Amino acid sequence: MSNPYKFNTSKYSTHSIINANIGANKIVLDIGCNDGYIGKHSDSSNTFYGLDYLQESVDKAKEVYKDAILYDLNNLKELPWNKKFDTLIFADVLEHVLYPEQVLDFFVNNYLKKGGKVIISLPNIANWQIRLNLLFGKFYYTETGIMDKTHLHFYTFKTAKELIKSQNLSIKNVYGGATFFGKIIRKAPFLKGLLSTNIIYICEKTA
Predict the structure, then answer these.
(1) Residue 49 exposure: Cα atoms within 13 Å on the Cβ side
(2) Where are the domains of the chain?
(3) Pairing between strand 85-91 and 112-123?
(4) Prediction pTM value
(5) Which CATH class is domain 14-204?
(6) 31-76: per-residue pLDDT in tens?
């Protein structure tokens, strides 16, 4: 089966913003790693570990990551690596699981170093295209994107913030991922809720 997800190299894409916030010399856990494309495009000094629910993706990620395993986020269990990570990445994954709060809580409390970073991206249901479709009574699921048919939850910047605050994480930065409107959002941040395709929160574990 062809993989519809690829790394978006646009300067203002969600993937590029995530990579710009990882830094260097970090031990990273990519939760929902797909075939490892985030790690592949990250600074080479970083060490990546990955989790994914598809064996084919795990096999490909292992070519890039130090290790990757098959893992069901709806069935949380201990990881095989006896370590805590500098950075946890949830790149467009929490909207797919039954209980996002539980998943976030489990990994932050068990596998993130104090002072470690959590990078979360979520699709923005308040994007202008979705709003326009709703205005005309359209609410159709798609294979990928904001209306991906496998999404169990929908988020705005406000509800994404509430999810993060429920875990007592400190929010350090907020971005709107937008390949086509990125320049506009940088100049007029108040438009990010309308023009962004993705919500990106950079958080820190303070306790």
Answers:
(1) 18
(2) 14-204
(3) parallel
(4) 0.93
(5) alpha beta
(6) 999 999 999 999 999 999 999 999 999 999 999 999 999 999 999 9
